[in-house]
Amino acid sequence: MFSPAGDALLARGMKEIGGISLHNLHGLILAILNPWVAGGIVLLLAFFASYMSALSWADLTYVLPATSLGYVLVALIAHFGFHETISPTRWLGIALITAGVGFVAAGPSVTPARAQRLHHDPVSQEAESWGMPKPGSRLA
Amino acid sequence: MGDAQAWLAIGLITLAATTGDVLLAYSMKRVGDVHELLKRRGLLAVIARVLMTPTFFLGLAAMAVAFYSLLFGLSWGNLSLVVPASASLTFVANAFAARIFLHEHVGRRRWIAALLVAGGVVLMAA
Questions:
Q1: Minimum-distance CB partner of B110 among A92, A107, A135
Q2: Which structural domain range is residue A112 located in?
Q3: What is the DSSP string of B9-23?
Q4: How far off is chain B from A98, nearest CA to CA, in Å?
Q5: Contact between residue B85 and residue B125 where contact means Cβ atoms under 8 Å apart
Q6: pLDDT tens per residue, range B46-79
Q7: Per-residue pLDDT tens for A89-114?
Q8: What pTM value is reported for the model?
Q9: Within an 8 Å CB–CB cutoff, is residue B16 touching chain A?
């Protein structure tokens, strides 16, 4: 259960790096030719794919706090890789995020009623899904 | 005036990002466990199944609205206000939305986590 979560978190952390390199560059069309930006886009796609796959087996309220580990990872990379100084307020922020993620990770990853459905054969689940309520239609 | 516009943008970003997250989560629950599907049917089947889910595109559209609202927000307000405020509000708004629309069980543990992460994001941007 936690190994795909670990994979997803790593990709998510990398997304932040990719995002930053994208934001710093002007001239979006030329920027795509830059290997760093191209790498960033690939990482963003990897982040999106792993985010979607995590959402397929875990609750949104479980996956979303975990994505915030990306902020922590970026700060640690900036500190140890680029020797940037991190203010005490930021260290406190890192501690809060880490504590929050720890809190949610120690609990169940999916709402129990849904866990049963998810552990069914995904093929037969297709038929079942027609009977599900459609909150999406209310949102749209 | 600048502040009011910045908060308008923050509200828009939070609303659009939360709508997008909820729609994407809903779509992926309909698609089913991707790891299982991948093992049984292969990558193409997974991609086809995702692309055949209409709410996936609605979610993507909402994410795009959130991204452009962020760009507008950054032109109206300070980076140090708009980014952390919208990011941390999105964590809290998502906890409400997941409970109401996705019927997720958001217990005390998850509320505390959402608030801790939201607070942490604000501090990191300070």
A1: A107
A2: 2-139
A3: HHHHHHHHHHHHHHH
A4: 8
A5: no
A6: 888 889 899 999 999 999 999 888 888 877 777 7
A7: 888 988 898 888 888 877 777 776 65
A8: 0.73
A9: no
Instruction: Please tell me which of the candidates A57, A62, A94 has its beta carbon nearest to residue B120.
Output: A94
- Residue of B62, B28, B7 lying closest to A50 (CA atoms): B28
Of B22, B94, B117, the CB nearest to A100: B117
Q: Where are the alpha helices (DSSP H) in chain B?
A: 2-31, 34-41, 43-51, 54-76, 79-101, 108-125
Distance of CA B107 to the CA centre of its chain: 19
> For residues A88 and A44, what is the distance between their CA atoms, to the nearest angstrom?
30
Which residues in chain B are contacts of A98 at CB distance < 8 A?
A: 120
Closest CA–CA distance from residue A100 to any residue of chain B (Å):
4
Complex-level ipTM: 0.81
Note whether B102 contacts A: Cβ–Cβ < 8 A. Answer: yes
From first CA to last CA, the distance across chain B in angstroms is 23
Is there a contact between B112 and A100 if contact means CB atoms under 8 Å apart?
Answer: yes
Which of A22-26, B20-24, B92-96 has the weakest average pLDDT? A22-26
